[in-house]
Amino acid sequence: MKIGVIGSMQHTEKMIEARDILISQGHDAFVTTLAMPFIGKTDEEKEAIKIHQKNNLDAIREFWNLMQGSDAVLVMNVDKNGIKNYIGGNTLMEMGFAHVLNQKIFLMNPIPEIPYYNTEIEAMKPVIINGDYSLIK
Prior knowledge:
By secondary structure, the chain is an alpha/beta fold. It has a single domain, classed as Rossmann fold (3-Layer(aba) Sandwich). The chain has 5 helices and 5 strands. Helix 3 runs parallel beside helix 4. The radius of gyration is 14 Å and the shape is globular. The relative contact order is 0.19. The mean pLDDT is about 95.
């Protein structure tokens, strides 16, 4: 299965780890081609990189292009800024892209309690894997 791993760029290292696990299980998994500058950086540095990439490198469209022909996305919705199972605006858009492209949507953790997002996320009918990669099929 061809799977894009998505989530907050604050958690790039976790996204790469998930990609590598999926590859070890025989999947064709990928993260954004813009991920490498985030490795080993502080949260403040990552935020600056993220803003630069969105404004100057068309980061949103870059992942849209990568998603073409994929079967699924795995959302690394881990805690961020005190929000359990965080899903940010950009990740929500990428989930929407996957939904429109008829790709499966897997969530690493349960749907977060973020006002106004819950119904949109539920409507996409994601499969919640709770860290069990064997549920990705």
